[in-house]
Each structure stands twice: as structure tokens, then as C-alpha cells.
Write a structure and sequence with these properties.
Blueprint lengths: L7 H20 L3 E8 L5 E6 L4 E4 L6 H14 L3 H14 L12 H14 L7 H6 L24 H11 L10 E4 L4 E4 L8 E2 L4 E2 L22 H4 L22 H9 L1
Antiparallel strand pairs: 1-2, 2-3, 4-5, 6-7
Helix pairs in contact: 3-4
InterPro entries: MTPAP-like_central, NT_sf, PAP_assoc, Trf4-like
GO molecular function: metal ion binding; mRNA binding; poly(A) RNA polymerase activity
GO cellular component, one term: nucleolus
């Protein structure tokens, strides 16, 4: 889910509409247990489907349809994205670090953090401009396919890719005060100073958080609420260190992204 936000008047209207939607979902017995409407920057319904799946429902954000198309395109170009997302989301949920309202990391910025890692491993990145022009998909996601490494292609070994992701974002390899995730700029880029001004806690001290550029809104940090990022990082030493992450290892920056970062 992208994070454009609403002004106060529009936000209250969205909350009221979501409450009406929640009432209809309960009446149709499509959800079970407790459910609520959060009043975050982008209000959402948090509920449990009758099949036991956690579901977040939002409305009114213009980029959502484009985000769905973009992520579907990205899964086609980088098949390991889908299982890696499932594993990492499960890990975050296990440690109560998957809710941005509580300082955690939501699925949208996590998606691009995984893609940034996969880019370093040789996978291609989807084009945001193409996703904006595509109609919203009417069908469900295609079924998962067997991951098999081709002779000249990047590795499809999920264990190796997961291990590499955890090491890449470990404290010894990723400086969250100096680097940001940006698939538009090769996977990683220098972090704009303005993105280091996020403050949390009673004393309002600056907090280290993961910064992830939204590929559909260049220059916007989609993970600005992740002030518990240090708790998410894998701190176990390894005998096989990877090169330290540095800006722009793969692709050339897009003009729009570069200009947005210079303005930040």
C-alpha cells in the first residue's frame, strides 16, 4: 500500500466510509473476530477474513492500482520476491515489527528492500511508468512456479537469497543513517539529509530508520515510520561477509528520482 495521506476533512470521510464497509463485511460474514479502523495517515480496516488471513483494506489512494500492477510485474521479473516476502513478513509479524504505526515495516517498503537486494543479485527491476499505464488486474495472482536457476541467470536458491538479504541489511553492511533503498537509483543511494529528521519517543530524539524511496512517488520515503529498524536487523556475525552496500551498484538513476532527491 502506498502512503499518500489525506487532509483532515478527507481523512474523516475515508474513516466513515471504511466503518460503513466494515459493517457490511460483518453482515456478510466475510470477516471474523475483532476488527478496527485505524486513523493513520492512510486509514485502513484491519481485520481477519473468515478463512483466517489477516487483511488490511484502504481506499482513495490514487497510486494503489499502479502499485498492484508494478508489484505483479516485479514478481514476473524476479520470481524469488514472492517467497522471500512471505518469509520476511512472517518473521516481522512474529516479533511484532510489521506495523508502521508501532515503528515496524509494512509490506510495501519491504517489497522494495527485497527488490533492491535482488537487483544486486542480477534480477531486473520493473518499470513504474509502464505500471501507471496498465489497467488494474481483474484476476488473482498467478500460481507460484517452481524456481529453477538457468545456466546464465541469477541464482534462484531461496536459502542463499534470504541469507544474503539478512546480511546485506545487517549493521555491519548497511548504514541506515547514510544509505537509502531506491530501486530507481540502482538499488541503493545516499540518504537525503531530510530523511534523517524522523523523531519518535517521549524525548523526540532522532531515530535511525530504514528509508525506502517509493518508486511511484520519487523522493518520498515510504518507510519513514520504521523507527524500530534496529530491532529488525540481523546482528549475528558471519564467516562469509558480503561487500558493504553502497549507492548505485546496478542501474543508473532516473532523472525524476535524481531531481527529487536533490530537492529533499
Amino acid at each position: 500500500m502506498t502512503s499518500e495521506g489525506f487532509d483532515n476533512k478527507a481523512k474523516q470521510e475515508v474513516i466513515n466510509n471504511l466503518r460503513r464497509l466494515l459493517k457490511h463485511l460483518r453482515k456478510a460474514q466475510l470477516i471474523r473476530g475483532q476488527a478496527c479502523v485505524t486513523s493513520a495517515r492512510v486509514p485502513i480496516v484491519k481485520c481477519l477474513s473468515r478463512y483466517g488471513f489477516s487483511v488490511d483494506i484502504s481506499m482513495g489512494t490514487a497510486n494503489n492500482a499502479a502499485a498492484v500492477c508494478l508489484i505483479r510485474n516485479q514478481m514476473s521479473l524476479a520470481p524469488p520476491l514472492r517467497p522471500l516476502m512471505l518469509i520476511l513478513r512472517a518473521i516481522l509479524k512474529m516479533h511484532n515489527l510489521g506495523e508502521p504505526s508501532l515503528g515496524g515495516l509494512s509490506s510495501y517498503p519491504l517489497t522494495w528492500a527485497i527488490v533492491a537486494h535482488l537487483m544486486q543479485e542480477g534480477f531486473k527491476v520493473a518499470d513504474p511508468a509502464r505500471a501507471r499505464q496498465q489497467p488494474p488486474p481483474a484476476n488473482a495472482l498467478p500460481p507460484p512456479r517452481l524456481l529453477k536457476t538457468s545456466p546464465n541467470g541469477p541464482s534462484m536458491d531461496l536459502g542463499s537469497l534470504l541469507h544474503g538479504f539478512l546480511r546485506r541489511f545487517s549493521p555491519s553492511n548497511f548504514n541506515s543513517s547514510a544509505l537509502a533503498v531506491s530501486v530507481l537509483q540502482g538499488g541503493f543511494t545516499s540518504k537525503p539529509p531530510a530523511w534523517n529528521k524522523s523523531k519518535q519517543g517521549k524525548e523526540k530524539k532522532p531515530q535511525k530508520h530504514l528509508s525506502v524511496e517509493d518508486p511511484l512517488k520519487p523522493g518520498q520515503d515510504a518507510a519513514c515510520a520504521s523507527f524500530k529498524f534496529e530491532q529488525m536487523r540481523w546482528k549475528q556475525p558471519t564467516r562469509c561477509p558480503i561487500p558493504k552496500t553502497r549507492p548505485g551498484l546496478v542501474a543508473h538513476p532516473s532523472m525524476s528520482s535524481s531531481q527529487s532527491f536533490q530537492k529533499s
